[in-house]
Design goal:
Layout lengths: L33 E8 L4 H7 L5 E3 L5 E8 L2 H8 L5 E5 L1 H18 L2
Antiparallel strand pairs: 1-3, 1-4, 2-3
Length: 114
């Protein structure tokens, strides 16, 4: 199993060992274009933000909201990932990604407005 180190609060050695499995380095693939994004998150999503982003990329605002500057894989995966945060995330940059999410949100709204 894979565990996020950021989730470990207390660690204790059991003396047991395990055999490490090899996992594909998806994020290091040469055919995946990476892009810089700046995102603004609602305070209610802090649990996910701290779980999914490097702490050094997170800036907490006075109102409890969070601004994240990160490098993420571009394309359809990124749009789906950001949509998974619902209205709790705002794309600050790049502007074309704002427009892309808006277009996708309009398609979703049209499905339910029939």
């Amino acid at each position: 199993r894979i565990f996020k180190l950021s989730r470990i609060v207390r660690i204790k050695s059991t003396g047991k060992s395990f055999e490490r499995m090899e996992y594909p380095a998806i994020m290091n693939r040469q055919d995946v274009e990476m892009m810089e994004v700046r995102l603004h998150f609602s305070p209610s999503l802090a649990f996910r933000v701290y779980d999914e982003f490097d702490p050094s990329a997170i800036h907490k605002e006075m109102d409890g909201s969070l601004v994240v500057a990160s490098t993420l894989p571009s394309g359809q995966w990124l749009e789906g990932y950001l949509l998974s945060f619902g209205a709790g995330v705002e794309v600050l940059t790049p502007q074309w990604l704002q427009q892309s999410l808006l277009a996708e949100a309009k398609k979703i709204a049209c499905m339910y407005n029939t």
